[in-house]
Design a protein that fits this description.
Belongs to the sigma-70 factor family. ECF subfamily. With 180 residues, this protein is mainly alpha-helical. The chain has 8 helices and no strands. 17% of the residues are buried. The model has no long low-confidence stretch (mean pLDDT 83).
Length: 180
């Protein structure tokens, strides 16, 4: 059945492609939703996956259609998720760099920052050794990435990565959302 539709699509039959979309619409949606966990993102991704399937059909060689489209769907969803995480990390880095000591800090901001610093001081020795230096430097001593990189004799990117990993560790082990 699928092979007949695929051959018709390859020869330019748009109706055959619509039938294929109808047949696999829910399947593709659920495949990408399993990765993205967001209905709107999954709907958008499913549409993009069908465009990829359509443009990739000439390379399809009857190796199991459902497996083939699943691979396309899941890989696309993973790419979207990676880009989203990367954008979030970039936004966090920008926020941290600009909010390290913003002019005219609100009282609420200062109180929350002090609470976070106190929590970290108390629990610093619970952190794995490779995370302590950057966490203490950034959150408690309020050093910039550049200052930390110079002090630790590493590149700024290394400081960013170590801080990111330290935050991930804290979120996982302390169940704290204050370190995102």
């Amino acid at each position: 059945m699928d092979d007949v539709l695929i051959e018709k699509i390859k020869s330019g039959n748009d109706h055959a492609f619509r039938l294929l979309v109808e047949k696999y619409r829910n399947y593709i949606f659920h495949s990408v939703y399993g990765v993205l966990r967001n209905e709107k993102d999954a709907e958008d991704a499913a549409q993009e996956v069908f465009m990829k399937i359509y443009t990739s059909l000439p390379q399809y060689e009857k190796q199991g259609f459902k497996t083939w489209i699943t691979r396309i769907a899941v890989n696309h969803a993973i790419d979207i998720k990676r880009k989203k995480v990367r954008r979030q990390e970039e936004m966090n880095v920008e926020y941290e760099e600009t909010s390290h000591a913003p002019p005219g800090e609100s009282v609420e901001f200062l109180v929350l920052k002090r609470e976070r610093q106190n929590l970290l001081r108390k629990r610093l020795d619970e952190l794995p050794e490779n995370h302590r230096g950057v966490v203490e430097g950034f959150y408690i001593k309020e050093q910039t990435y550049e200052e930390l990189a110079q002090e630790l004799d590493v590149k700024v990117k290394t400081v960013e990565v170590r801080l990111y990993r330290a935050r991930q560790w804290m979120k996982k082990h302390w169940k704290e959302d204050d370190f995102s």
